[in-house]
């Protein structure tokens, strides 16, 4: 079993990352090679930066070209849900549109 379970990266396809918002993410790696996001930084259109700690991962899905993480985080006392996609071949985090 690989670092991503039974995930085997497929051949490359063109992805329109312009439709997705790229995002900076800090991850935690486990000894078995698996990882989870623990912080993310969101930059608004006017370049204002917001950094959030991820409280927990609700679920993870290994999809065709990427790994999808459903994350819970808190902002101003309220808990929110956020989907993060990690494209393995491109080593790129996005917020799916």
Structural account:
With 97 residues, the protein is mainly β. Helix content is 0%, strand content 57%. It has a 7-stranded antiparallel β-sheet with strand order 1-7-6-5-4-3-2, with no helix packed on it. Mean pLDDT is 82; it is low at 7-18.
In brief, what are we looking at here?
The protein has 97 residues and is mainly beta. Helix content is 0%, strand content 57%.
Strand order of the largest sheet: 1-7-6-5-4-3-2
Count of domain modules: 1
Backbone shape: globular
Poorly predicted sequence stretches spanning 5 or more consecutive residues:
7-18
What is the string of SSEs from the N terminus onward?
A: EEEEEEE
Q: Main β-sheet, in a few words?
A: 7 strands, antiparallel
What share of residues is helical? under 10%
Cα radius of gyration in angstroms: 14 Å
Topology of helices and strands:
Blueprint (H helix, E strand, L loop, with lengths): L20 E2 L1 E6 L5 E9 L5 E14 L3 E10 L2 E10 L4 E4 L2
Antiparallel strand pairs: 1-7, 2-3, 3-4, 4-5, 5-6, 6-7
Task: Please give a handful of descriptors for the protein shown.
97 residues, seven-stranded antiparallel β-sheet, globular
């Amino acid at each position: 079993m690989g670092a991503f379970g039974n995930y085997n990266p497929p051949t490359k396809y063109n992805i329109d990352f312009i439709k997705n918002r790229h995002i900076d993410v800090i991850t935690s790696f486990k000894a078995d090679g698996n990882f989870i996001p623990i912080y993310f930084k969101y930059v608004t259109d006017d370049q204002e930066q917001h950094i959030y700690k991820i409280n927990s991962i609700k679920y993870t899905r290994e999809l065709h070209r990427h790994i999808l993480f459903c994350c819970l985080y808190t902002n101003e006392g309220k808990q929110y849900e956020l989907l993060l996609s990690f494209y393995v071949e491109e080593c790129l985090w996005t917020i799916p549109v």
